[in-house]
Design a protein that fits this description.
single chain, 455 residues, mainly alpha, Growth Hormone, Chain: A
């Protein structure tokens, strides 16, 4: 892979180096516009259930909603990875957005009528599934638009930009509901329909910005054959992807650490939703919860921004594994310090730290997968990671639904979650840290582990 054992010289300004890449700027624009649409669409769906006075949902119903939207795609996610390694990723980006733009419209029509039917949920399954397919394709395509030495910065910038645009979409939808539209099925339906415009624009930009083969997979690595052949090979391809990931111990440990974080995060997410909607809302009007929810999104967004700026230089200086240990332990401390008082202002501190940690861990994990895994396996590996990402979140939300009261206020549950984060930090320090010290940390010095392997 490398012609020399000498590490490439690192650019002085990593963000500038990434943004100078025209392909990366265009890929980031495709992501940003689509994720504004995601925020509008998913925020409208969630709002129609959580903050619609015409419909109320408890903790178990919220967890079930997340399961319906995430689990079906998660169960087939690794199989989709085989197609990511077979089909042109530009085609994936364009077609996924075009199909989503079309499918959002009938969902909005069902929301408008307020009819209780499984049909909109079934269609929403396809839309959310295509979203995960789209994002996995973008991650697999990123190494084709930036150099290996700037992957950590590219992931930091792109991931944070996408998260902020997603939050922007939610915030824009909430603002429209509160100021122009109504807190009703009709208002949420119009916000959901608006997402179709953003999906269409994202598809058009992707189509115009890249050549058919520009985003990979490379022609030499792309698998041929019919779709039927691909389906037959799916199981073997998934197993091969799992074995490839398992062989890359540093990346595998990070996937496990992120999965543990997401499991505990599912409990925290449900507790926060219940607290901000019900626990801190003494008037009983769920529509008044918009203000506190908006503050929580703002705190989370600030945490993501700081993570995007802090993770690349800190990970290069101290090592990605040390940064993951720090943010895992810090999340446990923040939940104890800011969460246990059950104060709406202090809880924003816990939201801030948790989102900073989530973004920091994601940046390090994505970079490790891109750096350590071969291009012909990247699609499958990212789909496996994406499946784990979703399954553990849903499992955590169900744990929360089983253990939390309807107000979300529970000292024992938060203490267990905080202790879980601290134990996860200790476990990853023992496993991931020992491996990183043994073979070298790629994120602290891109190419370091590979150079040692050559020597």
């Amino acid at each position: 892979m490398f012609a020399s054992t000498i590490a490439p010289r690192q650019p002085k300004h990593f963000v500038r180096a990434v943004l100078r890449q025209r392909g990366f700027r265009r890929l980031a624009a495709v992501r940003a516009i689509a994720q504004v649409g995601d925020g509008l669409f998913q925020g409208a769906l969630a709002g129609s259930v959580l903050f619609n006075p015409q419909q109320r949902a408890g903790g178990m119903a919220i967890a079930a909603g997340f399961a319906i939207l995430l689990l079906p795609y998660s169960l087939v996610g690794p199989y989709v990875g085989v197609f990511l390694d077979r089909w042109r990723r530009r085609s994936i980006v364009v077609v996924a957005n075009l199909v989503r733009a079309l499918l959002v419209l009938p969902i909005a029509a069902f929301v408008w009528t307020g009819e209780k039917s499984p049909v909109p949920f079934l269609i929403a399954l396809v839309v959310i599934g295509l979203n995960r397919f789209f994002l996995a394709g973008l991650s697999a395509a990123t190494p084709h638009v930036v150099s290996d030495s700037t992957l950590v910065t590219a992931n930091s910038f792109a991931g944070t930009l996408g998260s902020l645009c997603y939050s922007l979409g939610i915030g824009a939808g909430a603002t429209l509901i509160k100021t122009v539209l109504a807190t009703s099925f009709h208002g949420y339906a119009l916000v959901a329909a608006l997402a179709a415009v953003f999906y269409l624009v994202s598809a058009l930009i992707g189509r115009a910005s890249f050549g058919p083969d520009e985003l990979g997979p490379d022609a030499a690595d792309r698998r041929g054959g019919s779709i039927l052949t691909a389906l037959v090979e799916t199981s073997r391809g998934t197993v091969a992807g799992i074995r490839h990931l398992a062989a890359k111990r540093g990346a595998a440990y990070l996937v496990l650490a992120q999965a543990t974080f997401r499991l505990l995060y599912g409990v925290v997410l449900l507790a926060s939703l219940l607290l901000f909607r019900t626990g801190f809302n003494h008037g009983g009007d769920v529509t008044s919860s918009f203000g506190t929810i908006a503050n929580a999104f703002l705190a989370g967004g600030v945490g993501m921004i700081i993570a995007s700026f802090a993770t690349p230089p800190v990970a290069r200086r101290i090592g990605g594994w040390r940064w993951v240990v720090i943010v895992l332990a810090g999340t446990g401390a923040a939940i104890l310090g800011f969460g246990l008082p059950f104060d709406p202002v202090l809880l924003l501190g816990a939201v801030f730290v948790t989102n900073l940690a989530a973004q920091g861990i994601k940046i390090v994990t994505d970079t490790s997968l891109q750096h350590e895994c071969a291009d012909e396996y990247r699609g499958r590996v990212f789909s496996i990671n994406d499946t784990t990402f979703n399954l553990t979140l849903v499992a955590g939300m169900y744990l929360g639904a089983l253990t939390l009261p309807e107000t979300g206020r529970s000292v024992p549950v938060l203490c267990v979650v905080a202790a879980g984060y601290v134990l996860a930090a200790a476990g990853y320090a023992a496993l991931g840290g020992r491996w990183a010290r043994r073979v070298g940390d790629d994120i602290a010095g891109p190419g370091g582990a590979l150079r040692r392997a050559h020597q």
